[in-house]
Design a protein that fits this description.
Number of domains: 1
Helix content: over 70%
Order of helices and strands: HHHHHHHHH
Shape: elongated
């Protein structure tokens, strides 16, 4: 059974709970992409099996809960640990303690829009929660702006599936190259910084 078949069966059997569960898993475990889950749910809504609004709500609840898990990972790391690690092994995180401090101040000023916008960018949407936790963004604020970003993202994917109907899987053909490009930029940026990093 392929991943797609498994997702399809879970949503068919569990309905909205299945959508929420899959989006929770997607947020925690990136290899399960949201652009397989939400367009499928949108297609089901176009057939009258689900309410489009309830689909978006279920997906947003699931993905926001998953984001909270990564936020908590960031909180466990914390600024102090990251600063000490950067002082000893800055090469691996490509950051100096001074850069950690600057990032902390930047996140204090721009954390809310960064989280909201990050949740609508493939690949970034999973990992934006970690710095939010590391730099101790207010949890309620984090949940609010994560949920807003997730609602936008899930709404777009659900609408695409609803409009495309049986061709909902075409959403993957549009988003996959974008996700690959974002990942390639992130990896390239890291290696360039690692190779040129000076203590």
């Amino acid at each position: 059974m392929t991943m797609f078949d498994w997702i399809t069966q879970l949503i068919d059997r569990a309905g909205y709970i299945g959508v929420a569960l899959m989006m929770f898993v997607e947020s925690v475990f990136p290899p399960i992409p949201s652009w397989l889950v939400m367009p499928l749910a949108g297609f089901e809504a176009s057939a009258g099996r689900f309410s489009p609004v309830a689909v978006v709500l279920a997906g947003t609840i699931g993905s926001t809960l998953g984001a909270i898990c990564w936020y908590m990972v960031g909180r466990l790391v914390g600024v102090e640990r990251l600063t000490r690690f950067a002082a000893r092994h800055g090469h691996w995180v490509t950051m100096t303690p001074a850069e950690v401090d600057r990032a902390d101040r930047w996140f204090d000023r721009h954390g809310a829009p960064a989280v909201m916008l990050g949740r609508v960018v493939p690949v970034v949407r999973t990992f934006i929660s970690i710095p939010a936790g590391v730099f101790e963004m207010n949890l309620r604020q984090f949940i609010l702006f994560t949920a807003i970003g997730d609602a936008i993202w899930n709404g777009m994917l659900t609408t695409a599936g609803y409009l495309l109907r049986a061709q909902y899987d075409q959403v993957r053909d549009y988003i996959n190259p974008v996700a690959s490009a974002v990942l390639a930029v992130a990896i390239t940026t890291y290696f360039v910084r690692a190779l040129t990093w000076k203590k």
